[in-house]
Write a structure and sequence with these properties.
4 helices; Plasmid mobilization relaxosome protein MobC; NikA-like
């Protein structure tokens, strides 16, 4: 036993990190030999281990948008059509070209946009000219 009043020396080693940041879950992924070679090459090019590279790649990439629900597909197509028309007008205006749009068309566009928004949210469509 240590009867001296001198402080104990630490055992050394790596310091414990933040318990909230400790990775405990394991995800097993099977890859073919050629896929494994590709993963190793790509991770080595980034000076990372394959697991580090996979984690970074998986967590930083934007996933594709989920498919539009069948119930909203018709409204989504209408919305895409309206957006395409607006993009064309915006592009022409940004190029400095003169863009003339009838007030009635702008009012209709606003009404259709409101109707589509309500339909996509599942709200009962109310026809009013606000």
């Amino acid at each position: 036993m240590n009867t001296d009043l001198t402080p104990r020396k630490s055992k050394g080693g790596r310091r414990k990190g933040d318990p909230a940041a400790v990775r405990t879950a394991v995800i097993g992924v099977r890859v073919s030999a050629s896929e494994y070679i590709t993963l190793c090459e790509r991770s080595a090019a980034m000076h990372m281990k394959p697991a580090q590279w996979l984690r970074a790649a998986a967590l930083s990439r934007r996933l594709p948008s989920p498919p539009v629900a069948a119930i909203n597909r018709e409204q989504y197509v209408e919305l895409a059509r309206l957006a395409a028309n607006l993009n064309q007008l915006t592009r022409l205006a940004n190029e400095g070209r003169k863009v003339t749009v009838a007030d009635a068309l702008l009012a209709r566009l606003l009404t259709e946009t409101r109707r589509l928004r309500q339909a996509l949210l599942g709200v009962e469509v109310v026809d009013d000219d606000r």
